[in-house]
Design brief:
It is a single chain. The protein has two helices and no strands. With 52 residues, the protein is mainly alpha-helical. The mean pLDDT is 83.
Length: 52
């Protein structure tokens, strides 16, 4: 059974510039990631970790 081949969308303009800048920043600082948590989610994670 063959799968359909779909074209890969090409990113251009301002979207492409933002993508390239984000990729360059991630390459400069690979240990960092952009994770956004609410304070409530953070509190749940910390409570589950049971750090003393």
């Amino acid at each position: 059974m063959a799968l359909d081949i779909r074209p890969i969308p090409i990113v251009t303009g301002a979207d492409a510039d933002r993508f390239v800048e984000a990729a360059a920043a991630a390459e400069r600082h690979p240990h960092k990631c952009n994770v956004q948590l609410s304070q409530g989610d953070f509190d749940k994670i910390m409570a589950k970790a049971k750090l003393d």
